[in-house]
Write a structure and sequence with these properties.
Layout: E1 3-6, E2 12-18, E3 32-41, E4 48-51, H1 52-55, E5 59-62, H2 70-76, E6 84-89, H3 97-108, H4 122-128, H5 135-142, E7 147-157, H6 171-190, H7 194-212, H8 220-243, H9 246-259, H10 264-276, H11 280-293, H12 298-332
Antiparallel strand pairs: 1-2, 2-6, 3-4, 3-5, 3-7, 6-7
Helix pairs in contact: 3-5, 6-7, 7-8, 8-9, 8-10, 9-10, 10-11, 11-12
Keywords: Cytoplasm, Repeat, TPR repeat
Subcellular location: Cytoplasm
GO cellular component, one term: cytoplasm
């Protein structure tokens, strides 16, 4: 089956090699498209430049997220599930292919796709550097030319049908996701599913940290986001206490207290982690700091200090017995 179509886009021709199934999918902003592709030169030999099957994994793009080769979204949105089609695209649509291919190849090789790039747009990087590190891509960069893309569409998933990666969310989507994740984490804590709850809190923190990275530290926007991050980190640390991950609690609470050295709850959780790993002096210092910062927590601190004292006395007795046993064994020998 080979039928040639014009997509009402200048410089594009489509040929269907294998028909798809059903109706044309609903391609809406945020939909995830999964497909295999092959890129060929428009020459007599039809030289293969890239083949996603050789890389061992299909390609994914998110509709409306400004993929660098904008024409690919147009091509894929003309396809049915299971369809295989060949697209001829003029050079006006293929100028960015060398840079995109470079990134995809580096990922397939297990390397950082942004290695060596300055923080500029793709076009700026193209002018800054004379070589992509691949001879065939350098040729495409020097001499923009028509390319042929053979694509096989596997599936189209609506935004609500798959787990959105943080990078694929807009600012508004990330902000909307945070209270949902926070609430879900709280629900899981009540069910004592601490590992799953920790994952929800962690995901919410990642959303906020990504947004925070675009703000100037300690200015209004940054501080507002930090105010949302802090309780999530504390909830995450509480889950880690329940799971016995005490050193992780020490790490996260210490990092939090470097920014907010008056947070009594952070000191309290760090004190509990210190106590759990037998850091008696550090635990006592943190518990006393809690009582100083928040007198309302004094009763809880008194209880924890009593428990700490009992545990340490028991440990000292056990240690003394152990050492006596070793000493007697040594004398006997």
């Amino acid at each position: 089956m080979e039928e040639t179509y014009l997509l009402n886009v200048e410089g594009v021709r489509k040929k269907i090699l294998h028909g798809g199934q059903g109706e044309l999918p609903k391609f809406q902003d945020g939909s995830k498209i999964t497909f295999h592709f092959q890129t060929l030169k428009d020459n007599f030999e039809r030289t293969v430049i890239d083949d996603s099957r050789e890389a061992g994994m299909p390609m994914e793009i998110i509709v409306g997220k400004m993929f660098k080769i904008e024409i690919w979204e147009t091509l894929l949105c003309s396809m049915r599930t299971g369809e295989v089609a060949e697209f001829w695209c003029d050079a006006i649509h293929t100028g960015m292919y060398a840079l995109v291919s470079k990134g995809m190849r580096r990922i397939a090789e297990g390397r950082d796709p942004l290695e060596g790039q300055k923080h500029r747009c793709g076009m700026g990087n193209m002018f800054d550097y004379h070589s992509t590190g691949y001879d065939d891509l350098d040729e495409l960069q020097r001499t923009p030319q028509p390319l042929i893309f053979i694509m096989e569409l596997f599936r189209v998933e609506e935004p609500s049908a798959y787990k959105r990666d943080t990078w694929a969310m807009s600012k508004e989507e990330k902000l909307a996701a945070v209270p949902v994740l926070h609430s879900e984490g709280n629900r899981l804590v009540l069910q004592k599913e601490f590992q799953r709850a920790a994952e929800k809190y962690q995901e919410a923190v990642i959303c906020l940290r990504n947004l925070q990275a675009k703000e100037k530290p300690w200015e209004e926007g940054w501080l507002k986001l930090e105010g949302l991050v802090t309780p999530l980190v504390l909830n995450y640390c509480q889950c880690q206490l329940e799971l016995g991950e005490y050193y992780e609690v020490l790490e996260h609470t210490t990092e939090l207290l470097q920014k907010h050295n008056d947070n009594a709850k952070a000191y309290f959780k760090r004190a509990k982690a210190h106590a759990a790993v037998w850091n008696e002096r550090e635990a006592r210092e943190d518990f006393l700091r809690v009582a100083h910062l928040d007198p309302a927590m004094a009763a809880a601190v008194k209880k924890e200090l009593k428990l700490l004292g009992e545990r340490m006395r028991k440990k000292h007795v056990e240690d003394r017995k152990r050492y006596q046993g070793l000493f007697q064994q040594h004398r006997g020998e």
